[in-house]
Amino acid sequence: ALNLTLSLALTITLFLTLTRTLMMLNRPHFIRLDAPMNNITTSVGQTAELLCRVSGNPPPTVRWLKNDAPVVQEPRRVSYRSMLFGSRLRILDTTDTGYFQCVATNIQGSVSTTAKLLKTYCHPFPPHLFLFLFLEIWLLIAALISADSSCSWQLAQRKIWKQYCLSCSKKIPLSSFPDPDPLPTSLPKEPT
């Protein structure tokens, strides 16, 4: 019974493979770039993905080039794989900047598309952050000395961190930093 089941499964698999092959042979041969690749700007340490959207009959083979040289797969750094729509290049080490080209080829010819990968340096603890920390400490001390310690320090702190996050080019929504009232221009005077 087991041999009969295996034989039946192999027969069905062979039939489906032959049917798919005959259908592909009856379709017209073509190669097409379905969409151009997009340029990518990413921070150091982030993964970048380039998608090469191509189709063809017979299915095209895809080669990746970086600055006109073949891309070599390296574990935990650069990898690519064929997908249903074409190919995907994943770059884990985004110090690799440059022009990446996808070249798809079959018996009808070849198509290609190119994208530029750029990196930005957004360090988790940049030097100018020390200035912000100093200002926060100073504002906290000023707020503790003043009569109104609840308002001025919180407003100033919100503005400082809003400026830092925007300068770092991270996509943090501005709604995360509500602006209640403008910063007071001077500390409140003590009653005499």
Automatic annotation (TrEMBL):
InterPro entries per record: Ig-like_dom (IPR007110), Ig-like_dom_sf (IPR036179), Ig-like_fold (IPR013783), Ig_I-set (IPR013098), Ig_sub (IPR003599), Ig_sub2 (IPR003598)
Gene3D superfamilies, alphabetized: Immunoglobulins
Residues covered by the Ig-like domain: 28-118
GO biological process annotation, one example: axon guidance
Naturally occurring in which organism (per UniProt): Astatotilapia calliptera
PROSITE patterns in the cross-refs: IG_LIKE
Any Pfam family matching the protein: I-set
Membrane-spanning residues: 6-23, 129-147
Listed GO MF terms: cell-cell adhesion mediator activity
Keyword terms of this UniProt record: Disulfide bond, Immunoglobulin domain, Membrane, Transmembrane, Transmembrane helix
Any one of the GO CC terms: plasma membrane
The protein's name in its UniProt record: Ig-like domain-containing protein
